[in-house]
Amino acid sequence: MDKILNHIVDRANAGSKMLVRLIDPDKFAPSTICEGFDFYFVGGSTASDTTAVVRAIHGACTTPVILFPGRPSQFTPEADALLFLTLMNSRDPRFLIDQQILSADAVATSGIESIPMGYILVDGGRESTTQRLTGAQPVSAQKPDEAVRLARTAMLLGKCLIYLEAGSGANQPVPQPVIRAVREAVDLPLIVGGGIREPQQMSDAFVAGADLVVIGNHFESHPEQIPLFLAANR
Fold first, then answer.
1. Which of 5, 132, 141, 216 has its CA 20 to 30 A from that of 170?
2. Ramachandran class of 68: left when φ > 0, alpha when ψ lies in -120 to 50, beta otherwise
3. Residue 147, phi-psi category: left (phi > 0), alpha (psi -120 to 50), beta (remainder)
4. What percent of the residues of the chain are helix, what percent strand, and what percent coil, each to the nearest 5?
5. pLDDT tens digits for the chain (234 residues)?
């Protein structure tokens, strides 16, 4: 039942660095799907139709597909797993529990592997779509202790993954001090995404303690650079 999560945990414990491509269904280009990534994440802040995208990825490669939903309507049981997330920065019950309640029946009856995750917005230098839609206040890039408190709270609530997110199209990625502080405080697989445009930024996140690095927006604009990032992570 926990095949995907156990795989992530085992690889993280072994020191493996995993590269993830995030697919926004509204910007999906089937011709850019390829082998080489450790996982595909599918989801977005506004998109709703994920089933066709999941089917297309499964038809083009063997890479596991994990839903990273922004709303219950994005759920499809055809994915390999689901990130059942809580937006830790939010004080709005819709994003702390209401959206999860709306999707709980469909998720539970589908039999899909559901992975509890603490999702933490970090200031990326511009207002992200998630911030705009939810009103959540991102963690200051200069205050790693704020991210640590949220990550520890997520861990104590039973989350299995922590995701530090600077936001799609962020001006800068999550800073190394923030990643490092969370890595030292929480013994869970750590995902980092947002604002990564160069292989060196990916490497910096890994060096600071990320187990998985997620790239989405940059590959939508520059799919020709996918081989460069894959090669840099070998």
1. 5
2. beta
3. alpha
4. 45, 20, 35
5. 699 999 999 999 999 999 999 999 989 999 999 999 999 999 987 766 899 999 999 999 999 999 999 888 899 999 999 999 999 998 888 877 888 989 999 999 999 999 999 999 999 988 887 888 778 899 999 999 999 999 999 999 999 999 999 988 889 999 999 999 999 999 999 999 999 999 999 999 999 999 999 999 999 999 999 999 999 998
